[in-house]
Specification:
By secondary structure, the chain is α/β, with parallel strands linked by helices. It contains 2 helices and 3 strands; from the N terminus they run βαβαβ. Strands 1-2-3 form a 3-stranded parallel sheet, with no helix packed on it. It is globular. 14% of the residues are buried.
């Protein structure tokens, strides 16, 4: 389980190249003030629109390139 000590104060989080198949729940639960989130070069299959829209309201940049099995993100996220 991912634990992030900085929590709400964290503004930039780079999780690229970690083989992630899903966005860790801690990202939405603990990192509510993220501005930049890099999830590139993983094995993500889908992105939870509720996580991005409801919890990460300050998010300005979301990197998803290099996730070959990722389904097209919902329009709300783009």
């Amino acid at each position: 389980m991912l634990q992030l000590a900085a929590g709400p104060q964290l503004q930039v989080l780079a999780l690229s190249g970690n083989g992630l198949t899903a966005v860790p729940p801690a990202v939405g639960n603990q990192c509510t003030n993220l501005i930049h989130l890099d999830l590139s070069r993983n094995a993500l299959t889908k992105i939870d629109a509720a996580l991005v829209l409801d919890r990460l309201t300050a998010l300005k940049s979301l990197k998803l390139v290099g996730n070959p099995t990722l389904q097209e993100p919902p329009e709300e996220v783009c």
